[in-house]
Design brief:
The complex is a heterodimer of chains A (501) and B (154). Helix content of chain A is 72%, strand content 1%. With 501 residues, chain A is mainly α. Chain A has one domain. Chain A has a two-stranded antiparallel sheet with strand order 1-2. The termini of chain B are far apart. Chain B folds into two domains: 63 residues; 67 residues, no CATH class. The chains are: A mainly alpha (501), B mainly alpha (154).
Chain lengths: 501, 154
């Protein structure tokens, strides 16, 4: 009954005209961002975050979440029509989607991608609605040691799956922790790593680092090549965008597979939609009666990964909203957004802000319907976004990034920092240092330090408190195991194969 | 030591991070590590500083001991393009105080369109004017977000 009452309350929030508008703006922007290769949801959300400070928090989180899951819908368009994934989560869709398009079935591929996204996206929201409240209740028993252990485990999982080199991923995460501790220590008021600059006493704004590393770093890397936008040939065969009944029948298992695998992977920190889509594709191929045909344009090969990457969104919001632990760069930015608006994601988030949680859940149901409508008949229109020349697109991104940072603080010093972090983001890409652990380290840094110091205060300085409590001991052991995986040949080979695929 | 190895990004980034690790440890050493109330301001930074130092030295050591192999050479032309844009961006930010956001951003856009993408001056001027004006109209006038103003007042 709690869930029904909560959902009714949520729909009363989500159906408010202004929130409906923000939901539409979010899913529309998300689809556009998804269609554009080289501009991802983390960069877009980071850029727009400062502009939401004056908004109603419900409308703001509804819009940012809309960008997050809307991009997953849009990502399939370029995968199918151009063999270029709009998002990393849509890489695997290229395999069969593009082959279908080459055989004149682009319409069916785009249609099934939208339908699978809708079905699995809705199942993901259902999962979020059912799993989050009981998990939050369970997490109420957590104290500082458990939180420290949980954050360590989350960071370890992200480090494990972030890049080929664990050492580099760990260094990126530690760099994030360092940036997080720049400023005044909240316990002792000691100023740390401020280089004598008064501007750094209050720390470095998360937005500056996120926009610099994601948006500026991405634009600089994209501008290495002089090529103009790869103009899309006018899509052919899009008249019939609805798949046949046989197609839908063939995809029954793919819908279920994508929904379940996507949601489960999403709940794991470090999982992410790319891994969800690959796992779902692999499972679909493994159980298919026509596995030899995969790669030649099989419709289930589009439905399964597209479903998984949408269902993953619901899963990823579970640890974020109930434990305050983000599992990826994008959810780390969403965490920062909630904190900046004055909320504290964690076990008390749902009981203290039911309107926000249930409003978000209800808006995701509505947003998925909007996306289905947008992505079925309007797909040819979205494909035209690719005709925007890059020499116009990139200055726009740079401009919005600078305006975003400046309006957040009104400080030219922060714009200088933006340049520094933009260069850092570019250098990290060039040298193969993953950005997600840095952003996660930054988002979790202050919380980790606080939890660790509070734990040690509770135990009069004895580290044994971290291993004498069962939940904390299990999670810290898991974190250690995760970080030791590269030392075991076979396990590391599996990890590298997963990353390479 | 083979010169290609010495020049590698892993090595230099490892050295840079090791220096950062030393700096963090040196700074954390000066702050209170522990007090009767609990861990001090230096406690957490000291530990992650040591971890950064150890991991970066591991990265350097693994790069030095690994047999040199022929990888893709650094494409300095492409890197130079990206760094040119970054430099132009930094110059435009530095000019905000003098020229203001609108004019500086229009100049940056002109540079990107005309120099980086080799479009005709007329196209570059049109795009630069449109984006500068567009940002002013949308952010400053419509949304009321104050953009950095220069000596000319806008």
């Amino acid at each position: 009954m709690d869930i029904v009452a909560g959902l009714l309350q949520g729909f009363s929030v989500a159906l408010a005209p202004s929130n409906l508008l923000w939901c539409f703006v979010g899913v529309f922007l998300g689809t556009v961002v998804g269609v554009l290769p080289g501009l991802g949801p983390p960069a877009t959300i980071a850029m727009l975050l400062p502009l939401t400070f004056s908004m109603n928090p419900a409308g703001a989180i509804i819009m940012l979440a809309g960008i997050y899951y809307g991009a997953k819908y849009g990502g399939s368009t370029t995968s199918i029509l151009m063999n270029v994934p709009g998002e990393s989560a849509s890489v695997v869709t290229c395999i069969d989607g593009y082959q279908m398009a080459r055989k004149g079935r682009a319409g069916a591929a785009l249609g099934i991608a939208a339908i699978a996204s809708f079905v699995a996206g809705t199942v993901g929201v259902l999962g979020l609605m059912l799993v989050a409240p009981p998990l939050a209740k369970f997490a109420l028993s957590f104290s500082s040691p458990e939180y420290f252990a949980l954050m360590s485990l989350g960071l370890a999982l992200v480090v494990l799956l972030a890049g080929r080199s664990i050492v580099k991923a760990l260094l990126a995460a530690l760099l994030g922790l360092w940036i997080a501790s720049i400023g005044t220590d909240p316990f002792s008021t000691t100023s740390r790593f401020t280089f004598g600059r008064l501007e750094l006493l209050s720390g470095i704004d998360f937005v500056v680092v996120a926009i610099g590393v994601f948006a500026l770093g991405e634009v600089l890397a994209n501008m290495e090549a002089r090529e103009d936008a790869t103009l899309l040939e006018t899509p052919k065969g899009l008249r019939n965008l609805l798949p046949t009944w046989q197609d839908l029948k063939d995809c029954r298992f793919a819908f279920a597979n994508g929904s379940i695998v996507g949601f489960l992977v999403g709940t794991l920190p470090g999982g992410g939609s790319t891994i969800a889509s690959f796992l779902s594709y692999g499972l679909e191929k493994a159980v298919s009666r026509r596995k030899d045909e995969f790669g030649t344009g099989v419709i289930e090969g589009v439905a399964a990964p597209e479903g998984a990457n949408n269902s993953e969104t619901g899963g990823a919001l579970v640890p974020l909203l109930t434990l305050g632990i983000p599992g990826s760069g994008t959810t780390a930015i969403l965490l920062a957004a909630l904190v900046l608006w004055g909320f504290k994601p964690g076990p008390l988030f749902i009981p203290e802000h039911p309107d926000l949680f249930w409003g978000l859940v209800a808006s995701m149901y509505i947003g998925n319907v909007m996306l289905l409508v947008l992505n079925l008949p309007l797909v040819p229109l979205f494909a035209q976004v690719l005709r925007l020349p890059v020499y116009m697109l990139y200055p726009l991104i740079l401009g919005v990034s600078m305006v975003g940072v400046y309006t957040a603080s009104g400080s030219l010093f922060d714009l200088g920092l933006l340049m520094v972090f933009g260069l850092l983001g570019y250098v990290m890409r060039k040298l193969d240092y993953p950005a997600a652990p840095l952003i996660l380290g930054l988002a979790l840094g202050a919380g980790m330090e606080r939890a660790l110091r509070q734990s040690l205060m509770m135990s009069q300085g004895s580290l044994s408190i971290l291993v004498s409590r069962p939940i904390s001991a299990v999670m810290l052991s898991l974190a250690l195991l995760v970080l030791l995986i590269p030392l075991f040949g076979k396990l590391n080979a599996w990890r590298l194969r997963a990353l390479e695929s | 030591m083979e010169s290609g190895t010495r020049r590698s990004g892993d090595l230099w980034s490892g050295v840079a991070l090791a220096l950062l690790g030393i700096y963090i440890v040196a700074q954390a050493w000066q702050w209170e590590y522990s007090s009767p109330e609990g861990p001090g301001a230096g406690f957490f930074p000291l530990w992650y500083g040591v971890a950064i130092l150890a991991l970066s030295l591991l990265l350097v050591a693994s790069r030095l001991t690994r047999a040199p192999r022929r990888g893709d050479p650094v494409d300095w032309r492409r890197t130079g393009r990206a760094l040119s844009v970054w430099l132009a961006l930094a110059v435009s930010v530095a000019l905000f105080k003098v020229l203001g956001f609108v004019a500086s951003f229009a100049l940056l856009t002109y540079f990107i369109v005309a120099v980086m993408y080799g479009r005709p001056a007329r196209t570059a001027s049109a795009v630069a004017l449109a984006t500068g004006l567009g940002f002013y109209l949308v952010f400053d006038l419509a949304l009321g977000l104050a953009l950095p103003a220069g000596t000319l007042g806008f």
